Amino acid sequence: MSRLLINMFWPSFLVAILAEGAFFSLFDPTLLPLPHLGFDLTPLAVYTLGFLFFWTCGTLSSLLTCYLQWVPDNLLKEIDRKSGAGL
Predict the structure, then answer these.
(1) Distance from chain centroid for Cα 71
(2) How many helices (H) and strands (E) does the chain have?
(3) With CB atoms 3.0 to 4.6 Å apart as the test, which of 56, 74, 77, 80 could cross-link to 86 if both were Cys?
(4) Tell me, what's the pLDDT at 57?
(5) DSSP conformation class of 74
(6) Which domain holds residue 53?
(7) Given this model, what pLDDT does residue 82 score?
(8) Are 20 and 50 in contact, with CB atoms under 8 Å apart?
(9) Which pLDDT belongs to residue 59?
(10) Element (H, E) at 56
(11) What is the maximal distance between C-alpha atoms in the chain?
(12) Structure confidence at residue 8 (pLDDT)
């Protein structure tokens, strides 16, 4: 279980670092339209929320990848049996 968590959170953490660097090198957090939406946040808070957003997106992507890679053993045995590879 801990290996699964590491496989999900570590790559998503690295992607969040790269995504935040790319996003905030293009957009200044003080110029984002957050005050017009009713939010009055400091630039540090915007950086933090941006990082958490990118990390969450990366984690969901990694979770989906781990889920799609998981194949039950009985399904693999059935595939081997039908293809004749189990002989």
Answers:
(1) 21
(2) 3, 0
(3) 80
(4) 96
(5) H
(6) 2-83
(7) 78
(8) yes
(9) 94
(10) helix 43-69
(11) 68
(12) 85
pLDDT of amino acid 67: 81
Nearest-angstrom CA–CA distance, 50 and 29? 10
Any residues with CB less than 8 A from the CB of 15 and at least 6 apart, and which? 54, 58, 61
pTM of the predicted structure, to 2 decimals: 0.74
Find the length of the chain.
87
CA angle 40, 22, 69 (to 5 degrees): 105
Residue 8 near residue 50, CB atoms below 8 Å: no
Tokens 């889920």 belong to which residue?
Answer: 67
- Cα within 13 Å of Cα(65), Cβ side: 13
Q: Which of 30, 20, 12 is nearest to 51 (CA)?
A: 20
Residue indicated by tokens 């045995």: 77
Cβ atoms of 61 and 16 closer than 8 Å: no
- On whether the CB atoms of residues 46 and 29 are closer than 8 A, the answer is yes
Question: What is the tally of structural domains in the chain?
Answer: 1
